[in-house]
Amino acid sequence: MDACSLAGHKRPMSFLPIVHAPDYDANFAPDHRFPMGKYTRLMELIRASHIGERTIVHAPGPASAEWLSLAHHRVYVDQVLACKVPAFIEREIGFPVTERVSLRARLATAGTVMAARLALAEGIACNTAGGSHHARRAQGAGFCTFNDVAVAAHLLLADGEVGQVLVIDLDVHQGDGTAEICAGTDAIRTVSMHSEKNYPVRKQASSIDVALPDGVRDAAYLETLDWLLPRSVAGFTPDLVFYNAGVDPHENDRLGRLSLSDRGLKDRDRRVFSFFRERGIAVASVLGGGYSRDIEAVAGRHLMTFEAAAEFA
């Protein structure tokens, strides 16, 4: 169902706002280390699932250079928009910054801004991309071109739409770029729970970091999360939470070092959405990491986040 079909009618609260653009998928080769096809397949799975008819899909336009420059140096922004990123930065990103990659990064960033504004209006919203948390102020890294959450947080603060923002990053990798960009901004609290021995080798200091040993399974992970969530808002009153719901803590993820099951991942998502929605705090979910040569499997893991979000829409 799209927004036009509800024109002129009050939208039932049970509908989940989703942000998606076909060009989130830059059509990488199937054997590329970054499973680009998961974005297309995820949206197909959402539409075919039991939540498909309970979603309203919104399409973003590309983020402007002015928006992007709130979190990134303008020189780097201009390099990406012109597709003239230095080779050494492209190596750190993990792929060349072509026109399709540049457009994808701009759309995903604007998608997170749109999801944030929808969440503020409706309580919860999800972007089918985003969570590019390794992109730093001066460059991209780790399959991340622009840091969409950092851009969105700074934009909403600058526009006065929020007073405080919380970032809960449960991707298996530390949110080093988000921590670096947001350091020193008291209105943004960054929280990362991640695999201690995984990428990046050099971590940045988030407001709160929880580094987990290899092989952590469901029970220990969820117990730690139950400890962490109340601490994430201690002495802090966010108007909005960005939730990086990366599925790479899964036991079968190619780049993860943790051992969560499907059930563990979905219980994780339910806990996050439940905790903040019970407190009346808006949640904007972004996709984050998930790595497998089996696109069907990784897209199916991401689908569970949207199913969990729909329970709290």
From TrEMBL:
- GO MF term (any one): hydrolase activity
> Which Pfam family is one of this chain's hits?
Hist_deacetyl
Keywords from the UniProt entry: Hydrolase
Query: Would the keyword Hydrolase be found if you checked this record's keyword annotation?
Result: yes
Q: Does the keyword Kinase apply?
A: no
Q: Which residues form the Histone deacetylase domain?
A: 32-295
The biological processes this protein is annotated with in GO are: epigenetic regulation of gene expression
Q: Which domain of life is it from?
A: Bacteria
Q: Would you identify the family this protein belongs to, as annotated?
A: Belongs to the histone deacetylase family.
UniProt name for this protein: Acetoin utilization deacetylase AcuC-like enzyme
Source species of the chain: Hoeflea halophila
